[in-house]
């Protein structure tokens, strides 16, 4: 069984807590370790214990892994941080990870949703980061969400027998649905009014900042998308548009995988196992 070790480290005056999953002492550990970056209002176990299971699986395969709570989440101290303000947390976690595992020279950041976005934007700042695994990266804008909803949600609803059964029984609010569709069409194809809400301190929308960070990073990236998730489809749509995103995602250093029926958090064990298997294979491929 892999060894698991509880750790604590400081970040701007707050104590952060995490778990190291380490290969067996007899095994020759990899010089490449995986730091799991928690996304959304989650803590180090992850939804459906996905991060716990992933860390143990990687350690069993000889790859050290670490998961931890940001400031303000789980057991960690401090004020709750937005995913765009966790650079100090990630740097402190990597410092401790490297100190705890002799021979560790490369770090791969592995994140889901806005954890993936946090990892992508941190990566070019730290030469120790050699790779990224990004699951359903968060690139939300009002326009992008509306386009994904129109393309995937409404299309699926048209072929849903339950919808037509509701319409036939008079239990479906047609006016409300048409109003919602029209609202999404306006957001997707109308004048762009959301630049201010989607922009950061420097004024650029999130997708542009993500694209810039991934371009500056220059390392290898594994992208894993869920087929039944609008967040994933919003990211996938970026690769279908001509321009910087299409050129970036088309470079050989990017590898892309998709599980067609998976939801946002890969809630079923076979989906989690598939993601873990892809992660292991990708880590060994370079």
TrEMBL record:
Gene3D superfamilies, per the entry: alpha/beta hydrolase (3.40.50.1820)
Spans through the membrane: none
Domain Serine aminopeptidase S33: 47-145
Keyword field contains Disulfide bond: no
Pfam assignment, any one: Hydrolase_4
GO molecular function terms listed in the Swiss-Prot or TrEMBL record: carboxylic ester hydrolase activity
Keywords: Hydrolase
InterPro entries reported for this sequence: AB_hydrolase_Est10, AB_hydrolase_fold, Hydrolase-1_PEP, Hydrolase_4
Cross-referenced NCBIfam families: hydr1_PEP (TIGR03100)
Matches recorded under PANTHER family: ESTERASE ESTD
Protein's name according to its UniProt entry: Hydrolase 1, exosortase A system-associated
Species whose genome carries this gene: Massilia litorea
């Amino acid at each position: 069984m892999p060894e698991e070790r509880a750790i604590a480290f400081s970040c701007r005056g707050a104590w952060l807590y995490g778990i190291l999953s380490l290969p067996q002492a007899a095994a020759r550990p990899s010089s490449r370790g995986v730091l799991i970056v928690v996304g959304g209002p989650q803590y180090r176990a992850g939804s459906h214990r996905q991060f716990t299971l992933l860390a143990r699986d990687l350690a069993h395969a000889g790859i050290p892994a670490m998961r931890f709570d940001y400031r303000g989440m789980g057991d960690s101290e401090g004020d709750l941080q937005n995913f765009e303000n966790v650079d100090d947390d990630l740097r402190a976690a990597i410092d401790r990870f490297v100190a705890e595992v002799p021979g560790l020279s490369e770090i791969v950041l592995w994140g889901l949703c806005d954890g993936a976005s946090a990892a992508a934007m941190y990566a070019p700042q730290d030469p120790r980061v050699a790779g990224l695994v990004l699951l359903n990266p968060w690139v939300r804008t009002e326009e992008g969400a509306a386009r994904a909803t129109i393309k995937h949600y409404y299309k699926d609803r048209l072929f849903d027998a339950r919808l037509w059964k509701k319409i036939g029984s008079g239990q479906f609010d047609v006016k409300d649905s048409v109003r919602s569709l029209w609202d999404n069409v306006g957001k997707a194809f109308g004048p762009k009014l959301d630049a201010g809400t989607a922009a950061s301190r420097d004024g650029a929308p999130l997708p542009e900042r993500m694209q810039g960070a991934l371009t500056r990073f220059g390392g290898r990236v594994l992208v894993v998308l869920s087929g039944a998730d609008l967040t994933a489809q919003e990211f996938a749509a970026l690769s279908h548009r001509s321009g910087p995103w299409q050129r970036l995602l088309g470079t050989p250093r990017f590898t892309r995988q998709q599980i067609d029926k998976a939801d946002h958090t890969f809630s079923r064990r076979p989906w989690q196992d598939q993601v873990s298997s892809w992660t292991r294979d990708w880590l060994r491929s370079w």
